[in-house]
Write a structure and sequence with these properties.
Layout (H helix, E strand, L loop, with lengths): L6 H14 L7 H8 L3 H13 L3 E4 L5 E4 L8 H9 L26 H17 L2 H5 L9
Antiparallel strand pairs: 1-2
Helix pairs in contact: 1-3, 1-4
């Protein structure tokens, strides 16, 4: 299923896992170095996370980003939805976030398969928390 989630979504999970294992305000420079993600791209990702209320930000010396709640209070699904623009649909025809409905929805024989896959993926990602992946961070995800 290559391509189901963008780089932005994958990086959002890595940023959130990084923040989960570091206390206090964490600079983008530190995250960039640990995660090997460009600072410029991190600014975009953290902007989306901040807009969704998932992280707090503080400018200036000693500032940076931190989680707005405990790691166990985030689902991976909500993080991915924030980064991906609201939808975890596996195919574009199920992504209703743009207000468009596929004109073939009534006759497409594959739609039920994609709908079920989307439901399974969403259910799985909504059952996993940030705490689940941040406790596994010693496998190279964070540091």
């Amino acid at each position: 299923m290559a391509g189901m989630f963008s780089t932005r979504g994958r990086y959002a999970l890595r940023v959130m896992a990084d923040l989960a294992v570091h206390d206090g305000w964490v600079s983008l420079g530190d995250i960039s170095e640990r995660q090997s993600i460009s600072r410029k791209y991190l600014e975009q990702v953290t902007g989306l996370l901040h807009k969704a209320g998932l992280v707090d930000s503080q400018r200036g010396k000693g500032g940076g980003y931190r989680l707005s709640r405990a790691p166990e209070d985030y689902t991976l699904g909500e993080i991915l939805r924030a980064a991906e623009g609201g939808s975890l649909a596996p195919v574009a025809c199920l992504d209703c976030s743009r207000g468009e409905i596929c004109p073939r929805a009534d006759t497409c024989p594959t739609l039920p398969v994609w709908r079920e896959l989307g439901s399974l993926a969403s259910g799985y990602l909504d059952s996993k928390t940030l705490a689940d992946i941040s406790t596994e961070a010693d496998g190279g995800l964070v540091e």
